[in-house]
Amino acid sequence: MFLIFSSWDLEPRDEFVTLSGMVSMPASPGHHSPASWGIRPAKWQEDRLFDTDQYLVSLDNFLVAPDHAVSQAFLQNFAKITPQYPGIRAPLDPVVCRAWLAELAPLLSERFGAPASGRGWDMQAWFSLVTTPPQALAPMQRLPHVDGTDPQQIAMMLYLHRTGHGGTAFFRHRSTGLASLTADTYPRYAAAVQAEYGRTGLPPAAYPTDGAPHFERIHVADGTFNRAIFYRGNILHSGVIDNSAPLSASPSEGRLTINAFFRPAAG
User: Fold this and answer.
1) Inside any domain, residue 11
2) Cα torsion for 147, 257, 167, 39, to the nearest 10°?
3) What's the predicted TM-score (pTM) here?
4) Residue 122 falls within a domain, yes or no?
5) Residue 43: how many CA atoms within 13 Å on its side-chain side?
6) Beta strands in 121-266 (DSSP E)
7) Domains held by the chain: number
8) How many Cβ atoms are within 10 Å of 149's Cβ, its own excluded?
9) Within 13 Å, how many C-alpha atoms sit on residue 231's CB side?
10) Is residue 168 part of a domain?
11) Owning domain of residue 207
12) CA-CA-CA-CA torsion for 241, 244, 248, 251, nearest 10 degrees?
């Protein structure tokens, strides 16, 4: 059988920044100041995911100068870091992360609840480009995925592309009725998925679309250029990838995003 717990985005070795200090991450060339990375976190829109108790928050025109971010992507050393993510990544400068976190932390607490520890939020972020062609996808990359089972972890996707590819789709697993996974519900979900694909065979070599036959798509966040969306990372989701469109490794032609995670700060 195949691995069904697949996080495209989060990896344990990635480092986090906090408001009180920064961990050691490789600085990116051209990021001499966060001034060119200013954000507009004022007007948020909230959407409930169909009939679940989950929702996402979106913010249009997130970056004051989005073309600057795209130009900086050309200076990065992109690499395929893990087998889970179907593409290449490069870390976002921790100076930029720290500046964003200072503005986003109060809004995250307002929309998703303040961390119980009272220590605020940690953040990690990177540039990402989906580059793996559908026929080369591993079985685990052909299903909706979660980024972990902790509902306190908040994911952000900032869309910086104008390609034929889309934003992010959210799913519910039909037989269990689960749209999000926790440590308690994951074993039941995993057993059901293993059994289902044991009967029907591996999913086709393609990025998920409507989720059939074992998942249903319950919401789609459009990948509008310079839109950022925020959601709990334990919700089943997948990038909206056009299986017939090219997947370029060029930041100006590919499906470029900035992905981030926010966790309650460690003690």
Assistant:
1) no
2) 100
3) 0.90
4) yes
5) 5
6) 121-130, 154-159, 168-173, 215-221, 228-232, 237-239, 255-264
7) 1
8) 17
9) 30
10) yes
11) 48-264
12) -40
CATH number at residue 205: 2.60.120
One digit per residue, pLDDT tens: the chain, 267 residues? Answer: 444 555 555 444 455 666 543 333 333 444 445 678 999 987 889 998 888 889 899 999 999 999 999 999 999 999 998 888 999 999 999 999 999 999 999 999 999 999 988 889 999 999 999 999 999 999 999 999 999 999 999 999 999 999 999 999 999 999 999 999 999 999 999 999 999 999 999 999 999 999 999 999 999 999 999 999 999 999 999 999 999 999 999 999 999 999 999 999 986
User: How far apart (Å, rounded) are the C-alpha atoms in residues 144 and 84?
Assistant: 12
Q: 57-75 in b/e burial notation, b at 16+ Cβ within 10 A?
A: bbbeebbeebeebbebbee
- Both tokens of residue 197? 């694909």
In a domain, 98, yes or no: yes
Interior CA angle at 207 toward 126 and 128, to 5°? Answer: 10
